[in-house]
Amino acid sequence: MYVCICRQITDNQIRDLCRDGVSTMVDLKAKLGVASECGKCGKLAQTIVKEFARSTPFVNAAS
After folding, report:
1. Which pLDDT tens digit goes with each residue over 34-49?
2. Does residue 60 form part of some domain?
3. Around 55, how many Cα atoms within 13 Å sit in the side-chain half-sphere?
4. 3-state secondary structure of 46
5. I need a surface site. Which of 13, 26, 34, 40 has the fewest CB within 10 A?
6. Nearest 10 degrees: CA dihedral of 47, 3, 14, 48?
7. For residues 27 and 37, is the Cβ–Cβ distance under 8 A?
């Protein structure tokens, strides 16, 4: 589904970046430009980033 109409950004594009390590709106905005024009997509984009962060299991790098 389109999240940002201005930039033609989909929820799948946001999730793909989250899988690659993007974890903040600042990073997401830098990579895709989401919420940089009209801003109406900001809340939904933030929700997707937060949901992804909660669903990602903690990985202990020391083990």
Report:
1. 999 999 999 999 999 9
2. no
3. 9
4. helix
5. 26
6. 10
7. no
The answer to whether the beta carbons of residues 49 and 25 sit under 8 Å apart is: yes
- Name the nearest CA neighbour of 56 among 11, 23, 13, 26: 23
Q: What is the total count of domains within the chain? A: 1
- Residues present in the chain in total: 63
pLDDT value, residue 52: 85
CA atoms within 13 A on the CB side of 31: 17
pTM for the full predicted model:
0.82
User: What's 39's domain CATH number?
Assistant: 1.10.10.1100
Q: Which domain holds residue 49?
A: 2-55
Using the Cα atoms of residue 21, residue 17, residue 44 and residue 30 in order, give the sign of their dihedral. Answer: positive
Mean local confidence (pLDDT), 41-60: 83
